[in-house]
Amino acid sequence: MGKLPEFYVDQDLCTECGDCIKAVPQAFRKVEDEEVAEVHTWELDDTFMPRVQQIMTDCPGRAILWRKK
């Protein structure tokens, strides 16, 4: 099994809906004392790829992005 590429939440685009946290709690969490989400780990095996890609597509703010290297 491989690892997922690195991804992140653009907090300026985050709509605070929490859908990413519900969909992939292994990767996302709420920022303490704020209403936005963040990635607490992107080091997941590639079996999570469909779920991460789906939440990227479903995110109302289009705030979940692949980090460019």
In terms of DSSP E residues, the strand content is: 15-25%
Instruction: Report, as a whole number of angstroms, the end-to-end distance.
Output: 21 Å
Biggest pleated-sheet summary: 2 strands, antiparallel
Low-confidence stretches: none
The quaternary organization reads as single chain
- Note the total helix count: 2
On the 0-100 scale, what is the average pLDDT? 93
Number of strands: 4
The CATH C-level class name: Alpha Beta
Structural class: alpha+beta
Within the CATH hierarchy, at the fold level, what is the topology? Answer: Alpha-Beta Plaits
Helix and strand pattern: EHEEHE
CATH-defined architecture:
2-Layer Sandwich
Q: What is the molecular shape?
A: globular
Please state how the strands of the largest beta sheet are arranged side by side. 1-4
Helical amount? 10-25%
Count of discrete structural domains = 1
Rounded Rg: 11 Å
Describe the structure.
The chain is α+β, with helices and mostly antiparallel strands. The protein has a single domain, classed as Alpha-Beta Plaits, CATH 3.30.70.20. 22% of the residues lie in helices and 17% in strands. The strands form two sheets. It has a two-stranded antiparallel ribbon with strand order 1-4. β2 (28-30) and β3 form a beta hairpin. It starts with 6 loop residues before the first strand and ends with a strand. The mean pLDDT is 93.
